[in-house]
Amino acid sequence: MAKLNQIIAVEKGIKSRVYGEITDLHKAAQKPDLFNGFVKNYEPKDDEDEGLPSERKRVQYEVKDVLRSVERLNTELFDVTARKDWTNCDARADVVVDGRTIVAQAPVSYLLFLEKQLTDMRTFVGELPVLDDGEAWNRDVNSGLFKTDVVSQHRTKKVQKPIVLYPATEQHPAQTQLITEDVIAGFWRQVKHSGAMPKPEKEQLAERVEKLLQAVKQAREEANTRDETPAPSVGSAVFSFLMAD
Asked: How far apart are alpha carbons 175 and 166 in whole angstroms?
C-alpha cells in the first residue's frame, strides 16, 4: 500500500503529463479542418480528355478518438487525485515544540496553510524595527513606550554689545563700536520616545517563529507518511455518466 507522500509525488508527474496532452487535444479540437478530409477522383468526359490524378486529404482526428483520449487521461488524473485527497482526509499529525504540543492532530491541509502563514510571519518579524543601540532606553510605565534620559542642549542668540575703541579725552569723546556676540538664551530639554522593540526580544520572537515553522514542517512530513486510504474510482464514475449512450 502506498504512502501519502508517494501518491503526491506520482500525482505531480501525472498532472503535468495529462495537462500537456489534453492541452494539445484542446488545440486540435479548435481546428475543424483537422477533422475533415476528402477523396476526389476525376472522370474524363471522353477518351480524348486527359486524365487527372485523384486528390485526397486524410482525416487527422476523429471526435470519438479525441474523447476516448480525454477520458483515458482524465480518468488517470481523477483517480490519483482521489487517492491523495481521500488519504488527506485521514492524514493528521501533532505540531510539537520542545516536547509541548502546540496543535494536536492537525490535518495535512491545515499544516500546509500554517506553514505558509509562519513563513510570512518570519519575514514580517525580520522587518520589525528595533531600538537604537546608541541610546540608553527605559520603559515608561505610563505610556508603555521606551524613552531616554533628558538630554540638555543650549540655544544661543546673537546680541549686539558696544565696545570702547578709544576712551574719552578732554579733547575728544570716546569712540565705540557695536559687535555681535552669541550668548546662551536657554536650553532644550529632549527626551526621545520609541515604539520599537529591544533587539533581544526581536531575536527571541524570531527564534520561536522558526522553531514553530520547523515543527509544522516535521508534522507535515509525518502526516504525509500515512498509509493510503482506499478511494473510489472517480474517473470511471464520472466518464460513465458523461459518455453514456
From this structure: 5
